[in-house]
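I'll show an entry:

:::
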Amino acid sequence: MNRRHRLIQRWYEKHRTDELDHFARKEARNRDKGNEEKVDRITRAEELKRKARDEEVERERKKVKHDEYTAKVESIDVHLSRTYWENPENLKNITLEKIRRQIAWLRLKKVHIPAGLSSAKKADALQGLINILGGLSPETLQELTTSTSQA
């Protein structure tokens, strides 16, 4: 024990009362609680930092995945005329995958696509695509054609 601690101990023994004991116990409890709260705050801060790092990694992963998807959709052969999709000679070359990619491209260009069309069977998806292309205004078709020629 150092000198200061001994002096405090002597003073405490000399002036000891019930109130002083109560005060000392209360202060000791508060210090313990303060330390517990400090540990809890540190733990909570570490948890929040870890969660923020995980969310950042997840956002980056999703961004990369989205960029890959966009590049894949942008690279398809775009056919905006109904006649291509209605032509029986092209029907052999038209696959469900081509139809879905065309729908994805239209969706990427902010054209309204009905729900469930991407997961429809080939005949239904083809008919839906033909209906969508037939329902586009000339201005929208012009904008889509312009964006296709720029790509």
In short: The chain has two domains: 3-72, 77-150. The chain has six helices and no strands. The radius of gyration is 36 Å. The longest helix spans residues 18-74.
